[in-house]
Write a structure and sequence with these properties.
This protein is mostly helical. It has one domain. It contains 5 helices and 2 strands. Strands 1-2 form a two-stranded antiparallel sheet. The radius of gyration is 14 Å and the shape is globular. It starts with a helix and ends with a helix.
Length: about 110
């Protein structure tokens, strides 16, 4: 049951973030659910590999290069999921930052219950 709650919270976060940013479009809640799943899968399997491969530049930039990796994964999700569209890299970067904030807020609400 907890995994379904996290999935719904992630989809809600995607939906809210897309509503806030004009360069990101989500056609409906099903597209947000699908985008949440794909972002989760990419973060679980592809992100650690990318972080390992780019470790020297990540260390030089004091971890800020992970923001570029996150934006790249958002752009990849945009290419995979129909109904989820991100205009360009900068909107993907803004999307990843706001998505982090919205997810943090939603998970903080969950922990209070």
């Amino acid at each position: 049951m907890k995994i379904i709650f996290h999935w719904m919270a992630a989809a809600l976060a995607v939906f809210i973030t897309a509503y806030v940013l004009p360069g990101v479009t989500v056609s409906g809640f099903w597209a947000a659910l699908t985008a949440a799943v794909i972002i989760g899968i990419l973060n679980a399997f592809i992100r650690p590999i990318l972080i390992l491969l780019t470790l020297p530049i990540t260390l030089i930039t004091l971890g800020l290069f992970t923001l570029v990796i996150n934006a790249f994964l958002i752009m990849l999700t945009s290419k995979i999921v129909p109904g989820f569209w991100v205009k360009d890299f900068w909107w993907a970067l803004a999307f990843s930052l706001i998505l982090f904030l919205v997810n943090s807020f939603l998970h903080r609400i969950e922990k209070k219950k």
